[in-house]
Structure formats: C-alpha cells, structure tokens
Design a protein that fits this description.
11 helices, alpha/beta, globular, 40% helix
C-alpha cells in the first residue's frame, strides 16, 4: 500500500470568508483568493478561479450564505425574495454544471423551511453550506473506494487515463475520477496515470499533473490526440473521467474531448468509467440531448497568454463540454456504488421507496 495524503482543498471557510485556490494561476503560482461577497463568488465561478462541478456546488452554497449575509432586511418575505436574486446571480455563471443548481436549490429549500427570524435563517444557511462542503469530501472518498471494485482485475498494477481535471481541485477534496486514481495508488494498484493535456484551457496539463506531482503519483502527460495511439499500443488499461451533468439515461456531459475519448476506448476494448457524485445526475433530463452546453470566449482557442496563435479573420467555435452516450460508458461510479448507466434511474426509484 502507498500512502497518498490529499491536502488540496480548493474551497475553505476561513476567517469569516471563503478562501479559494486560484486555479487560473496554477501550476506556477499556488495562491488563494478571499471571497467576502456573493458577487465576487459569482465572478470567481464564471472566470474559473474555482472550477469542477462539485467544487462549483460547494462554492455556490457558500455564495448563497454570503449573499444572505449581505441582506439587511429583517422581514422574512423580503429576505427570501432578495435571496432568490442571489440565487439567480449564481445560477447565471455556468450553465452545464448541475451541482451548481443542486446546491443553490438545497440552500433555497432550507431557507424557506427554517422557522424563526432572518438571523436564524442565515445561521442555518451557513451550517448547510458547511455540511455540503463536508459531505462532498466524504462522497469523493467513498467514490474512490467504489471505483476500486470495478477497475480491471488484471494486470495487478494498472495504467489509467484521465481527461481534464476531476481531482481535489474540482471537488471539496480528494476528487471524483482522480479520487479513483488516488485510491488505486493508495492500494498499490496503480502503475501510472496518463493525463490528457485537455485543450483549450489545459486543465490536465496544469491541474491534474500538478495534483499528481504534489502526492508523488506517477503521471505522464499526453496531448489529447495521442490517446488513440496509446490505446493501440496497449498502454492504457482503463479510462476514468468526471462529469458535469448526467442525464437520467446515463448520457454524460464532461469536458470537451471526452466523447471522442470514449469512442476511441470502445474501439480498443478499453473500459470507460465516469466518476461523479449522485447529485450530478439530473433526473429531470431524459437524455443528453437536453443538457445545455456552455460556449466560452474564443480567446481560449486563439490565444495563449498574450500571444495570438491564429490569423485575423478566422471564425471560432468553443463549446466547453460534449456529451458521451450511455452506451459508450462501462459504469458510472458514485458514492453509492458503481452502476451501469441504465441502472441509475432504477436505483433512484428504489431509494424513493425506502
């Protein structure tokens, strides 16, 4: 067994404010941004200072509390009306990550259900945000251990491939897909991790690689278009990725490039796993065609730093996510176990009767 102590926590309540690791400055600078207002939290989410669906959910929960703290009225109905305005501000930041909407909905629900004064509601909102933070960390650790049960049994030490960053930086800590990697490393089942660089924002190159280096997890960086070559040569035993939203049928939205990776894995008979908390499943959507796909600014494509890469006059298309059909996914790993994509709805229905 290998000791792998994760100490990366991207969202922390500290000194009466929220401390966020500024992920736009990694790997060259490890710095924190202090967030005191809901408006600043919305900006941090939109500009990807904090990113990754579960981490966005945690940040949004704290953003709701910060917004509640800013409301000065003591009249309950007016307070709840203004809190809805805070919720709408935060909802507008990232349209694809369902954890954002899940956390906001949970905070609003608890606000409406809490009896007592406005100050009582504010205190319960703070406690709920802290609970969401703690629950996500526990969820990720459970997810990592469930992932161990479905990874290939042979060889004894596996080489895994991941895309984007679904690690501690994308969650409250430990990670979803990278949580599975961490658990495999801890139990001596990991030979090495291949990480796609993940164009255009390079989350694999900047973030996943950085996390692995912090914990001495062997990592090899490849460009996105090298995955097929690596699989053809038998270098990859399984693919593990995260998710920003999963439809009821198991169709999964994740960082752009995930769909093509799933097709390549299918062609080479390499198992393809999605690791995500159950809160990422949007049962209101019957399939992936209903998942909204965020389009980001074209400068992510045409510019690196201050250097423009392309000629003037070129048009750009920059979707941040794509949708992988359920039939390409071997299993979806959650904190409640690993499921065939088609079994998610059955499990949810079963739980509603328990």
């Amino acid at each position: 067994m290998t000791n792998s102590a994760n100490e990366v926590y991207p969202v922390i309540w500290h000194n009466d404010s929220v401390s966020l690791i500024d992920q736009t400055r990694l790997p060259n600078e490890y710095t924190f941004v202090e967030i005191h207002r809901s408006e600043d939290m919305a900006r941090a989410i939109k500009t990807m200072i904090v990113r990754g669906a579960p981490a966005i959910g945690v940040a949004a929960a704290y953003g709701m509390y910060l917004g509640a703290r800013e409301i000065t009225t003591r009249e309950r109905t007016e307070f709840l009306t203004q809190l809805e305005n805070v919720a709408q501000l935060l909802r507008s930041t990232r349209p694809t990550a369902v954890n954002l909407f899940w956390a906001i909905s949970r905070m609003l629900k608890i606000a409406h259900a809490t009896e007592g004064s406005v100050e009582d509601i504010k205190q319960v909102l703070f406690q709920t945000a802290q609970a969401i933070n703690a629950e996500d960390l526990q969820t990720c650790q459970a997810m990592g251990d469930h992932g161990l049960t479905v990874l290939p049994k042979t060889p004894a030490k596996l080489t895994l491939l991941t895309h984007c960053n679904a690690g501690a930086l994308a969650t409250a800590g430990y990670g979803t897909a990278l949580g599975v990697v961490r658990s495999a490393w801890r139990e001596g089942r990991l030979e090495k991790l291949f990480a796609d660089e993940t164009r255009p924002r390079l989350q694999g190159a900047k973030l996943t690689a950085w996390e692995c280096v912090q914990e001495n997890i062997p990592v090899t960086l490849i460009t996105d278009n090298m995955a097929a070559h690596c699989m053809q040569r038998g270098l990859i035993h399984a693919v593990v990725v995260g998710a920003d939203r999963i439809a009821a049928n198991g169709d999964t939205a994740n960082k752009i490039g995930t769909y093509s990776l799933a097709i390549v894995a299918k062609a080479h008979n390499v198992p393809f796993f999605v690791a995500a908390p159950f809160s990422t499943v949007d049962f209101a959507l019957c399939d992936g065609s209903q998942i909204p796909i965020e389009e980001r600014h074209p400068e992510e494509i045409y510019q690196v730093g201050d250097t423009r890469l392309t000629p003037e006059g070129v048009e750009f298309y920059n979707p941040a996510f794509d949708v992988t059909p359920a039939e390409l996914i071997t299993a979806i790993i959650t904190e409640n176990g690993a499921f065939a994509p088609g079994d998610l709805a059955k499990y949810q229905l079963q739980q509603s009767f328990n």
